[in-house]
Design brief:
57% of the residues lie in helices and 0% in strands. The chain is mostly helical.
Length: 385
């Protein structure tokens, strides 16, 4: 397996003639006429963070041995501090997402470091906050409805459907619309979804908004599949688990990379099958990263928590260590497939918005790994090496 410390630089997206190999995705195009693909990261001076305590320290983290990934630069600490300040005000005061006794867990999630690391081309703090609110809201839905803070598979479909109407509003009669509107304030996940979506639509085009709603419906479908298996105590086949994870995954996050970057990938280009494959592979690879880094955390939870190493161990009758290492191989295969698909698309469709979007998705993939690797508050590796 590749040595993470010797990972090749990310492929570029494009000097003609384009080279459809995985060695070229992140450096980006160069030459006459390409300056517009690299908007300055400081379209506005970063706002100074209010004195709310020391800034988050730089954390090296421990990567999963054998995992194929690309190191990233430490996220801008000024931006991290400001996003951390703003997202906490929004979560704890504006939408009352978590009670005070869970404030330390919210801090430990490190939303600021996560979003700044995943969106290096965001032109302003406000653009980063679009992603930060949605991430915090999505995590709260997972916490409250599915897992840590009272979540249950029982009745999950009804809760998710009602929460989804905060993203995709109900169009009903004048008699019943007020009751629905009041329901959006009835619990923390719905308050967060409603508020985060209101901020999002101010920056996004109608097609970007509809794209996001579609990907959130995919996410909720994945939640329901996992919940059904939990209720029936069914351990899926490995391929079935991977199918579920294509829906219950991070896809809504990289798919908004153009909104956060302040531009738009046109709907017809986003809908291209080759682009859909790139986005799906990116979501699948980043979600297996979560399975690997959260493995020990999930083992401590009550009951059987499905993740890729657990499913491989059960269905392929492997020792837990071998199953974990096999999951690393699955991740690496997905990463290589993602990079090859992105490079091929860049070669066959070298449109500026496509190239920039592919760079943004690749940056999100790398930033997502960085956050998992460095978030020692939440994650620790198993003792398999």
């Amino acid at each position: 397996m590749p040595d993470p410390g010797l990972s090749p630089s990310r492929p570029s997206l494009a000097d003609p003639p384009p080279d459809p190999t995985p060695g070229r995705i992140l450096r980006g195009p160069s030459g006459l006429g390409t300056a517009g693909l690299f908007p300055a990261r400081r379209a506005e001076p970063p706002a100074a963070a209010e004195p709310t305590g020391p800034a988050e320290p730089a954390v090296a983290g421990n990567p999963v041995p054998g995992l194929y990934y690309h190191p990233v630069a430490e996220p801008d600490p000024v931006r991290v501090a400001e996003i951390s300040r703003r997202i906490k005000l929004w979560a704890m005061e504006e939408v009352e997402l978590y009670p005070p006794d869970l404030e330390d867990q919210f801090d430990g999630f490190s939303v600021g470091r996560y979003m700044v690391g995943c969106h290096p081309d965001a032109p302003t703090i406000d653009h980063l906050m679009v992603a930060a609110r949605l991430m915090a809201a999505e995590n709260a839905v997972d916490d409250y409805y599915c897992e840590d803070h009272g979540g249950s598979p029982v009745g999950l479909g009804g809760r998710l459907m009602l929460a989804h109407t905060a993203l995709d509003p109900l169009h009903t009669t004048a008699e019943y619309e007020p009751q629905w509107a009041r329901s959006l304030q009835s619990d923390a996940p719905r308050r967060a979804y409603r508020s985060a979506m209101e901020y999002f639509v101010r920056e996004a085009s109608p097609s970007q908004t509809d794209r996001f709603r579609h990907d959130m419906a995919r996410l909720h479908l994945g939640y329901l599949a996992e919940a059904a298996w939990t209720e029936t105590e069914y351990v899926p086949e490995v391929w079935e688990y991977l199918a579920m994870r294509q829906f219950n995954n991070f896809r809504p996050c990289p798919t908004i990379t153009d909104t956060v970057g302040g531009y738009e990938l046109p709907a017809d280009l986003h809908a291209q099958p080759a682009m859909q494959r790139v986005i799906a592979l990116a979501g699948n690879a980043t979600t297996i990263v979560n399975d690997l880094y959260s493995y020990t955390k999930e083992l401590k939870a009550p009951g059987l928590h499905l993740n890729l190493p657990v499913v491989i161990a059960d269905r392929e009758d492997r020792p837990v260590r071998d199953a974990y290492l096999k999951a690393v191989e699955v991740h690496n295969d997905l990463m290589h497939a993602f990079e090859a698909a992105a490079a091929e698309l860049a070669a066959t469709l070298p449109v500026p918005s496509v190239l920039r979007f592919l760079r943004g998705v690749a940056a999100w993939v790398d930033g997502n790994h960085y956050w998992h690797m460095t978030n020692t508050y939440r994650y620790s590796l198993p003792d398999f090496w």
